[in-house]
Amino acid sequence: MTLRRHEPQPLGRRRALKIGAAAALAAVPLPALAHSPRRVDERALSFYNLHTDERLSTVYWARGGYVRPALGRINHFLRDFRTGDVLPMDVRLLDLLHEIRRRLGSDQPFHVISGYRSPKTNAMLVSLSNGGVAKNSFHTCGMAVDLFLPGERLSALRRVAVAVRRGVGYYPESNFVHVDVGPVRYW
Ligand SMILES: [Zn+2]
């Protein structure tokens, strides 16, 4: 109750403005609604990187095409954090992530464990993993990412990725799902 009384004034004003804007929008004749800021022709993604502690939220596709600067930000975000190497990520992977989040109805950022891996990093992981890391991993082509989505069960994430029919690996003991845009296969 005390907190509520101390709620800062600007928030209240913003709320009032929002309601005002909604009321104004409702009064606008129908054709003008096509210019509403609530665009459906946009695809956004947001991420949190557990290794670098970085966050990214960006619209990577708008008005029928990919947004180049946004792709650049995503490529940098999903870089090999061990070497700093950047590779353009396959846009089909971004669309896959967008579709997974849409199907789950989530607006949470994907928590990323691994995106792009340089051949050097992958070779190192292969030698350490005792068979757990593939030599020709799709991570080395910018076609795979290991992640989880806060607020969603890992099994739900796997189920949705499988339903979209892509490469899906399930690692409940490490709390992540591997998704890639290579051939359809599950493990
Ligand atoms: Zn992986």
SSE blueprint and pairings:
Layout: H1 2-5, H2 9-27, E1 42-49, E2 55-62, E3 65-66, H3 68-77, H4 91-104, E4 110-114, H5 119-129, E5 144-148, H6 154-163, E6 167-171, E7 176-180, E8 185-186
Parallel strand pairs: 1-4, 6-8
Antiparallel strand pairs: 1-2, 2-3, 4-5, 5-7, 6-7
Helix pairs in contact: 4-6
This protein binds zinc ion.
Residues 114, 139, 144, 146, 178 line the site of zinc ion.
Write a structural description.
This protein starts with a helix and ends with a strand. Helix 4 packs across helix 6. It is built from 6 helices and 8 strands, in the order ααβββααβαβαβββ. 27% of the residues are buried. Strands 3-2-1-4-5-7-6-8 form an 8-stranded mixed sheet. With 187 residues, it is an alpha+beta fold. The N terminus is likely disordered. The structure holds zinc ion (ZN).
CA gyration radius, whole angstroms: 20 Å
Low-confidence stretches: 1-38
The end-to-end distance, rounded to whole angstroms, is 51 Å
Mass-distribution shape:
globular
Bound ligands, named by name, code or SMILES: zinc ion
Q: What percent of residues adopt helix (DSSP H or I)? A: 25-40%
Widest sheet: strand ordering: 3-2-1-4-5-7-6-8
Which band does the percent of strand residues land in?
Answer: 15-25%
Q: Please write the string of helix (H) and strand (E) elements.
A: HHEEEHHEHEHEEE
Provide a count of the helices.
Answer: 6
Which class best fits the helix and strand makeup? alpha+beta
- Count of strand segments: 8
The average pLDDT score comes to 84
Largest sheet: 8 strands, mixed
